[in-house]
Structures are given as structure tokens and as C-alpha cells.
Specification:
75% of the residues lie in helices and 2% in strands. The chain is built from 9 helices and 2 strands; from the N terminus they run ααβααβααααα. Strands 1-2 form a two-stranded parallel sheet. Helix 2 packs across helix 3 and helix 6 packs parallel to helix 9. The relative contact order is 0.10.
Length: 259
């Protein structure tokens, strides 16, 4: 029978949440409600401001096509009376999410921070900065490299079939935004592997052994998330992802060496 005088073991000081006084469930719901209200108000203000710059946003989205074709007017059209206005609202939504994302992340972090330990709080800022940086790297590669190459391929291929390229502006904007979003999300792969390696789920040796299966899975994922079924677009996404996978192997190895 254990000794009654044996002191009770307490968790390490840096593993206990540091959030001040304990709140009730209703208090947490109230905090969640106010967080959602502040996030919705911030997004609405950002969208309104971006709506005023709809012509500049339009030039931003059509720039990849302009680098290939010069004048974009012969290629883009709308079949709806309200097509231009609704497109401006959609562009304002996309731009508003990007512009307000730092403030939205701040509100979300303030809601989550009280439940984190001291060690987890120290990781919040580096993880957020790394995630934003990787997302921007993916979007930049897609915007300046992949999109012009893909659009040039489709335009030239249509010419070989004697097909005139006459695209709906809604379809074009959807294609461009989906491509940039896909690249941005896929470039978060090193951050995911870093988190898994940090808690010991994956190792560098495990990643090396599963490399052939990972390459096949990467091409499958690229085929699913890209908005077009052509192999060129899929390869333009899958090849950088394979490079990121190799980077993940070295990241996991570096973390094991540090441990």
C-alpha cells in the first residue's frame, strides 16, 4: 500500500496552462461570440475598402494573362448584366481575406492563448510567421511562374485545334484563385511535418523509407486539387511539392540532431 505521506506529483510548471482565472463554459461562449463579431466586422471593413480598388484588383488577377497575351480584352467576357459588379464583390472578398488575415489571426490567437502552456505560447509566433511565409512563397511561385506557363500552354494548344480562346471572366478568376490557393496550401507541408516531427510521430528515416509512396500520393493530391485535368498543371504543382518533401526529410533530421 503506498505511503499516505508521499507527496503528490505535480505537472511541470511549463506544461500547465497560463490563462489567469478559470472561466466557466458560458464565459468561453461569450468570448467566442465576441471574437466572431470582431472578426466579421474586420472582414466587412476590409472588403469595403478593397471594393473601392476593384479595377486595381482586376489588373492584379489578369496580369498573368497579360504577360502572355498582351491585351486581355479579347479573351475575357461576361454573359450577365451584373457580371462585373458581382465579380468586384468576389474580388473584394478574396482581397479582404488576405488584407485582414493578420488581424483575424490576432483575434483567434487571443482567444486560444489562455488555454496554451508557456512552451506552446513561445511557439505561436514562429509557427504563424512560418505559415504565412510558406503560404506567400506558394502564391508567389504560382503567380509569377506557374500561371503564365499554364495559360501560354492552353492558348497555344487551342490554336493547334483551331479554337478561339474566349473565356468567361468568372471562370478565369476562379481558375487563377484556385491555383494560387492550391499552391499556398501545399507549401504548408513542411510546417505539418515539423509539427509531426516535434511530437515524435515521424522521423527522418521514416520519411526516407516512405519516399516512393509519398511521391505517388503527391501526384494524386495535385491531380485532385488543381482545377484542370491536364498533366502540365498537375506536374507544375507536384514537382515543387516533391522538393518540399525532401526539405521535410532534412528538417526532421535536423530536429533529431537537436534532440
Amino acid at each position: 500500500m503506498p505511503d499516505a505521506t508521499e507527496p503528490e506529483l505535480l505537472p511541470p510548471a511549463d506544461e500547465t496552462p497560463v490563462g489567469g482565472e478559470t472561466k466557466s463554459f458560458l464565459d468561453h461562449l461569450e468570448d467566442l461570440r465576441w471574437m466572431l463579431i470582431k472578426m466579421a466586422a474586420t472582414l466587412a471593413i476590409a472588403m469595403l475598402g478593397c471594393f473601392l480598388f476593384a479595377p486595381a484588383l482586376m489588373k492584379f488577377f489578369t496580369h498573368p494573362l497579360a504577360t502572355v497575351a498582351g491585351d486581355v480584352t479579347p479573351f475575357l467576357r461576361t454573359q450577365q448584366v451584373t457580371g462585373g459588379f458581382m465579380l468586384a464583390i468576389k474580388l473584394a472578398l478574396y482581397a479582404g481575406l488576405v488584407v485582414s488575415s493578420p488581424i483575424l489571426l490576432y483575434f483567434l490567437t487571443q482567444f486560444v492563448l489562455p488555454a496554451l502552456t508557456r512552451q506552446e505560447k513561445r511557439m505561436v509566433t514562429p509557427v504563424l510567421l512560418a505559415g504565412v511565409g510558406l503560404f506567400l512563397c506558394g502564391i508567389t511561385l504560382c503567380y509569377f511562374g506557374v500561371l503564365p506557363a499554364a495559360l501560354r500552354f492552353f492558348l497555344e494548344y487551342n490554336k493547334t485545334l483551331d479554337i478561339r480562346s474566349d473565356w468567361l471572366i468568372e471562370n478565369y478568376i476562379g481558375f487563377v484563385s484556385q491555383m494560387m490557393l492550391a499552391f499556398g496550401i501545399c507549401f504548408e507541408l513542411p510546417l505539418v511535418v515539423l509539427a509531426l516531427a516535434k511530437i515524435g510521430i515521424v522521423t527522418a528515416e521514416f520519411l526516407r523509407q516512405k519516399r516512393p509512396y509519398a511521391i505517388v500520393l503527391i501526384f494524386i493530391v495535385a491531380a485532385v486539387i488543381t482545377p484542370t485535368p491536364d498533366m502540365l498543371t498537375q506536374c507544375l504543382l507536384a514537382i515543387p511539392m516533391c522538393g518540399l518533401y525532401e526539405a521535410c526529410v532534412w528538417i526532421a533530421w535536423w530536429m533529431e540532431r537537436r534532440r
